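I'll show a record.
***
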Amino acid sequence: MDTLTLLRELSEHAEWADSIVFSAITGKTEAEGDEILLKRLRHLHLVQKVFLDVWRGMPINPEETASSGFPELMAYARSNHCENRDYLLSLQPEYLDTPTSLPWAELVSGSLGFQVADPTLGQTIMQVYAHSVYHRGQVNARLRELGVEPPMTDYIAWLWAYKPSPRWPGNAAGADAQGSSKEAAGR
C-alpha cells in the first residue's frame, strides 16, 4: 500500500471513529453537557481543522470551537471530515514530501528550547491521525467516568468490521455524510 492510500484510509477510520463517539454521546445529557468532555472534543476537532487549513493555505482560527456546544461541535466535526476527505482525494502523492511550515512552530520552539524542524505534508497528515487517536482515548476515558460505555474505536476494530462507513447520529447505520453506504455498494 502506498503512503497516500494509507493516509486516506486513516482518514476514513478517523471519521468512522469520531462518528461512533458522537453517537455514543448523543442523548446522554450527562455527557453532552460535560465541560471536560466538551473541552477535549473541541480540541480534537479544532486541531483537525487547523491542520487542514494549513494544508490548504487558509488562515487559521484557534478560537473557532471555543464556545461550541455539543450539537454545533458534532456538525463542525462532520463538516471537517468531509472537507478533509475532499482534500486528500485531490492530493497528488508527490506533494507528501513538501516541507510544511506550521504557524505555531516558533511558539513550540520557545517552549521546547530548540528550533523545530519543518515536517513534510505527509508527516503532518500522519500527526493529525496520531493526535486524534490520543485525544479520542481521553474522550472515551471520560465517557467511562460519566457512566457511558465508550465505543471501540481502534483501527484494527474498523478493519475487522470490513471498514464500515461513518455512523453519525441521525443517519441510517452505515451511511456516510453524503448518505451513501459502502455496505450497500457491496464493499
